[in-house]
């Protein structure tokens, strides 16, 4: 066994834990997961160049996770470093890239741990194998070689990630898989199952039919809970013939937001459950993870007051970045829309006022007619 990892408090993964972990995350332990999970690290573009702030990866099932990490990287670069110097925070040196990635990974795990202990996994440096290959556990070259570490979220976590960062960033390393496993174990597998909802326990966390990753991985990293529901708070679903079942959505305002556009679900109940609530639409920072028909990206603005200042929302710049290495810059101008909306409201108020006057006159005529008619009847 690795004396260095043992000295740091690491313990070899047990067959039971490895099997349960693979089954929860990928649905089965009898066949290996998709190869991209064992070959996709956290990798930036070239330092000091355009888009050097961005993670890069091919389009695969890790894209959703990478987009969330990218969002926290941008939060650090744009807002945590503000005022330190006059350098453009989006033109990153290698040191800035490293610090931003460490900060992002630490912050996400702290959100998931909710002030509790953090559990991380690292592959054995000596290529040790702790689990026998069998029909119930097919080797994937990573899970069977893991050491498990339990860390304090404040004193130990940041130092630990700094010390072992290269295991997450080296070319063709399983950096994304190591971080996903760490996030799941930090949340705990029993809580992950509860998060996934009783109706979807058989569905693995990674949702193998999603080309760029599952929604539950995104919500786990953003909110600390792997919920498939995006509405605010708790919604009780049921009818008069069944007990109401609570669906736990987003329980508090998020640091980074999430926007979703999906035209595949035509059922109103499904569409409503997948509609982000205000706690995702209006986060603490103007950064949003986006999913458009299954394609993930990050939209962001540099002004930290954007969501707190009504006037700032009238016209603002917005960047969209995809981990494919593409960026789109746009300007959102709501002033024309606001003027049109104001005009429509004014016309509606005028129309309603006119209708009210006309309606009142009609009632008086009817009343007068009734009186006249009554008089005529009396005369008859």
UniProtKB/TrEMBL annotation:
Q: Which Pfam family, just one, is annotated for this protein?
A: MINDY-3_4_CD
Keyword terms = Hydrolase, Protease, Thiol protease, Ubl conjugation pathway
The answer to keyword Signal applying to this record is no
Q: Which SMART domains match?
A: DUF4205
Reply yes or no: does the keyword Protease apply. Answer: yes
EC numbers, comma separated: 3.4.19.12
Query: Compositional bias of type Gly residues: which residue ranges?
Result: 370-380
Q: Which domain of life is it from?
A: Eukaryota
Q: Which GO terms describe its molecular function?
A: cysteine-type deubiquitinase activity; K48-linked deubiquitinase activity
Q: What InterPro entries is this protein classified in? A: MINDY-3/4_CD, MINY3/4
Q: Which reaction does it catalyse?
A: Thiol-dependent hydrolysis of ester, thioester, amide, peptide and isopeptide bonds formed by the C-terminal Gly of ubiquitin (a 76-residue protein attached to proteins as an intracellular targeting signal)
In this chain, the stretch annotated as Disordered covers: 346-380
Using the UniProt record, name the top-level EC class of this enzyme in a single word: hydrolase
Annotated Deubiquitinating enzyme MINDY-3/4 conserved domain residues: 22-346
Checking PANTHER family in the record gives:
UBIQUITIN CARBOXYL-TERMINAL HYDROLASE MINDY-4-RELATED
Q: What is this protein called?
A: Ubiquitin carboxyl-terminal hydrolase MINDY
Species: Ceratitis capitata
């Amino acid at each position: 066994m690795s004396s260095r990892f043992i000295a740091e408090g690491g313990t070899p993964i047990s067959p039971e834990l490895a099997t349960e972990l693979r089954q929860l995350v990928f649905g089965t332990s009898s066949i290996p997961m998709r190869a991209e999970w064992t070959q996709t690290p956290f990798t930036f573009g070239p330092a000091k160049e355009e888009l050097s702030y961005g993670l890069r990866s091919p389009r695969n099932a890790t894209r959703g996770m990478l987009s969330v990490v990218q969002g926290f990287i941008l939060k650090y670069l744009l807002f945590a470093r503000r005022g330190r110097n006059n350098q453009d925070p989006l033109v990153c040196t290698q040191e800035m890239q490293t610090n931003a990635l460490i900060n992002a990974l630490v912050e996400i795990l702290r959100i998931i741990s909710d002030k509790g202990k953090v559990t991380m996994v690292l592959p054995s440096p000596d290529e040790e194998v702790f689990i026998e290959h069998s029909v119930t556990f097919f080797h994937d070259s990573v899970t069977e070689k893991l050491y498990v570490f339990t860390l304090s979220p404040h004193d130990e976590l940041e130092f630990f990630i700094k010390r072992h960062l290269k295991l997450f960033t080296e070319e063709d390393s399983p950096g994304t898989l190591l971080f996903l496993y760490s996030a799941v174990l930090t949340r705990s597998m029993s809580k992950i199952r509860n998060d996934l909802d009783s109706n979807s326990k058989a569905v693995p966390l990674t949702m193998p039919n999603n080309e760029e990753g599952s929604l539950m991985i995104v919500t786990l990293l953003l909110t600390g809970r792997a919920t498939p529901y995006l509405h605010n708070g708790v919604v009780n679903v049921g009818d008069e013939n069944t007990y109401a079942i609570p669906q736990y959505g987003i329980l508090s305002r998020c640091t980074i937001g999430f926007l979703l556009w999906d035209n595949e679900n035509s059922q109103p109940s499904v569409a409503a459950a997948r509609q982000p609530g205000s706690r995702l639409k209006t986060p603490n920072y103007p950064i949003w993870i986006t999913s458009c028909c299954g394609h993930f990206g990050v939209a962001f603005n540099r002004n930290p007051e954007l969501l707190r200042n009504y006037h700032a929302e009238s016209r603002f710049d917005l960047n969209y970045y995809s981990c494919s290495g593409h960026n789109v810059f746009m300007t959102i101008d709501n002033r024309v829309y606001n003027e049109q909306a104001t005009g429509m409201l004014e016309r509606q108020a005028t129309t309603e006022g006119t209708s009210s006057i006309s309606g009142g006159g009609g009632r008086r005529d009817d009343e007068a007619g009734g009186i006249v008619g009554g008089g005529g009847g009396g005369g008859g």
